[in-house]
Amino acid sequence: MPTTHIAENAHELALQNFDTAANAMDLDPDTRERIKYPERVLTVSIPVRMDNGRVHRFEGFRVQHSTARGPAKGGIRFHPQVTLDEVKALATWMTWKCAVVNIPFGGGKGGITCDPKHMSQIELEHMTRRYTSAILPLIGPEQDIPAPDVYTNPQTMAWIMDTYSMTKGYSIPGVVTGKPLSLGGSLGRNEATGRGVYYTVESACEHLKMHLHGARVIVQGFGNAGSVAAELLYKAGAHIIAVSDSTGCIYNRAGLNIPEVIQMKSLCGHLEGFPDAEAILPQEMFALECDILVPAALENMIHEANAASVNARIVAEAANGPLTPAADRILQDKGTFIIPDILCNAGGVTVSYFEWVQDTQHLFWDAKDIYKRLEHVMKVSFNDVLKIHTERKVPMRIAANMLGIGRVAEAVQIRGIYP
Question: Quick one: pLDDT at residue 16?
Fold first, then answer.
């Protein structure tokens, strides 16, 4: 058989995954045409007067992949490598992700090509507000609801919410989620993605009859999702033997003290020099023998060149698209149980939905209630995907895509075509 082409970019990867699932479910051609590609794509120019007095032009994007099941929903990322194709892919994944956990949103995503690590707070605020003004026609609490993503945070969402509200003449907290609590944010939102990862890992261990207590875990990417997942797994008795961030990797065969790692990362901004650990190269980390690998960084981190070295029983995709299609096939052939991204990291958008509901109702829930609701959504969704996986005898990724695509397909078929 000929070798399948490796995706050159994230959007190609997203389209490949769609086609694989659509073929498996024998989706009719007319519905494919309607749900495969984005509904709206906006590219904007963002001039910002920098601290040195010069004007720098940034490029930004907002993509609405689908609004068939409800408003578009998806984060905004600030990163030097942001491209339109990446944003289109992320919006596509968001559509299936929202459908997998059965919340009434469609997929959206945004981004600005910039390097926030080399920008002042004033420059970031000016850029965010100008970007918000540029995408104003697309966003709104009933249209498209942004949220934090890579290198954006509650403060970023506060600037977006304020800019949008100033144009309307009154405060509209529901235009974004992931806001500070003082502006209508939700308890549990900051740790929601990592907590969702934990719940799906717990479910996978139960399915595979593995003990989570004592399991050896590697977390690649020690940002918000990775650090929260690592801490919850550590509290459950797992041994987190290696973690990494953009500055390097640390390893301790007996297990790292994760609360201390988190404290050092918070104080110093990096993992380098952590005591009771040795530094290893990033490429060495994937080859370590472990029970659970949590890729929680960026897309395409595990690919054809390094997938064969991965030695884990479970791969829990806390990041979006961390495996290329070629890596996916290699790990499937090895018998690795993959918890696909659109299921594994859906905790963030689930609690974003909770936040949006709370803002709409002007009634807020306590953290215990949010965690209980999130656990219920994640475990029901895991079992929905697992049922397709076992009954149809397809990989978990295809099963998750079949579930999400099927729900979106049903929505567009029932709605019909206007006019």
Answer: 87
Fill in the DSSP letter of residue 334. T
Residue 61 token pair = 């994007």
Question: Structural domains in the chain?
Answer: 27-175 (3.40.50.10860), 192-344 (3.40.50.720)
DSSP symbol at 3: P
Those residues with Cβ within 8 angstroms of residue 325's Cβ, 6 or more apart along the chain or in another chain: 4, 6, 7, 13, 16, 17
What distance in Å separates the CA atoms of residue 368 and residue 382, rounded to the nearest whole number?
A: 21
Q: Report the 10 Å Cβ neighbour count for 170.
A: 6
Question: What is the band of 300 on the pLDDT scale with cuts at 50, 70, 90?
Answer: confident
Those residues whose C-beta lies under 8 Å from the C-beta of residue 23, and which sit 6 or more positions away, are none
User: For residues 385-394, b (16+ Cβ closer than 10 Å) or e, as one string?
Assistant: bbebbeeeeb
- Residue 57 and residue 127: Cα distance in Å, rounded? 9
Q: What b/e sequence results for 371-383 when a residue is b if at least 16 CB atoms lie within 10 Å of its CB, and e otherwise?
A: bebbbebbeebbe
Tell me what pLDDT residue 321 has. Answer: 85
**Which two three-digit tokens encode residue 407?**
């729900």
Encode pLDDT of 45-67 as tens digits: 999 999 999 999 999 999 999 99
pLDDT at position 378 over 80: yes
The residue annotated as part of the active site, out of 73, 88, 97, 109, is 109
d(CA 82, CA 288): 30
Contacts of residue 33, defined as CB under 8 A and 6 or more positions apart, other chains included, come to none
- pTM given for the model: 0.91
Q: What is the dihedral of CA 210, 215, 219, 223, to 10 degrees?
A: 90
**Is 117 known to be catalytic?**
no
- Torsions phi, psi of 192, nearest 5? -65, -45
Residues 6+ away with beta carbon under 8 Å from 209 = none
Q: Which two tokens stand for residue 316?
A: 């829990």
The H-assigned helical ranges of 105-217 are 121-134, 154-168, 192-208
Q: Is there a contact between 221 and 183 (Cβ–Cβ < 8 Å)?
A: no
Inter-residue contact 109 to 74 (CB < 8 Å):
yes
Write down the pLDDT at residue 6: 43
